[in-house]
Amino acid sequence: MKHYKYLLLDADGTFYDFPSCEKVAIKKLFDNYNIPLSDDNLALYHSANSELWDLFEKGKATCDDIRIKRFIPIMKKYSLEAKSQEAGLLYCKYLSENGILYPGARECLECLKQSYKLIMITNGLKEVQYGRFEASNTTHLYDKIVISEELGVQKPKKKFFTHTLDLINATESDCLIIGDSLTSDIQGGINSGIDTLYLHLNKEKQDGAYTYAAASYDEILDLLINTN
Fold first, then answer.
1. Which residue among the candidates 10, 12, 17, 180 is catalytic per the annotation?
2. Catalytic site residue 10?
3. Would you say 142 and 129 are in contact if contact means Cβ atoms under 8 Å apart?
4. Measuring CA to CA, how many Å separate 228 from each of 2, 6, 116, 174, 176?
5. Which CATH number does 6-16+101-226 carry?
6. Whether the predicted pLDDT of 167 surpasses 80
7. What pLDDT is stored for residue 6 in this prediction?
8. Residue 16 neighbours by CB under 8 Å, 6+ apart
9. pTM score
C-alpha cells in the first residue's frame, strides 16, 4: 500500500455512533415538550432532518437551516411551531453532550495515531461536534479538526478539501480519506484527487470509485498498519 502522512477522518457513521447519540437526544427533547416517542413522530423528524442534510451537501441549505427548520413539522403537529427554533437549539445541546463511539473505534484511532497525523473532517454542526469530541475524550487524538461550518464550504465539494490541505500544509498524495459515505467522503476524494478508504461497518458493501474498502476497524489496521 502507498504510504500516507495524513488520514482525513469522517466522524459520524465512521467512528462515532450518531444513531445512538441521536436516540438519547431525541428522547430528552421529546420529553421536554411532552411529545410521544412514537414511530410516526420519529419518522416525521427523520424525514425533515434527512431532507435538510441532503440539501446541505448540495449547497442548498445552511447550518442554521438545519438548526432551526428540522423540528418544524413535528412541532407543528403538536401546535408548538413557535418553539421550533428553541427545540432545534436545545436538541443541539443534548447532542453535544453525547460522544458515543462504535465498539473498537477508540482503539483503532489510538493505534492510527502512532503512525499518522489524524485530521477530523466533518459536516456536522460545530457546537455539536466539538461537544461530542470532548464528551468522548477524543479531541486530543486529532492533530486538526476541520468543520465545514467554520470553513464555509462542505464535503464533498473540492474547495472543502483544498482548504483542509492548506490548513495542514499537505498535498493530495500525502492524504487518505476514511469515511462511510459514498456521497460525501468518497465523492469528496474523487472531486479533489485524494485516495479514499470506504468503511462499511455493519452494512453491505456498495460499489463505488473508492481506492480501498474495509468492513471493520481490524481491516483498516491491517491495511494501514500491518502492511506498512
1. 10
2. yes
3. no
4. 8, 14, 12, 15, 14
5. 3.40.50.1000
6. yes
7. 98
8. 99, 100, 101, 102, 105, 132, 136
9. 0.92
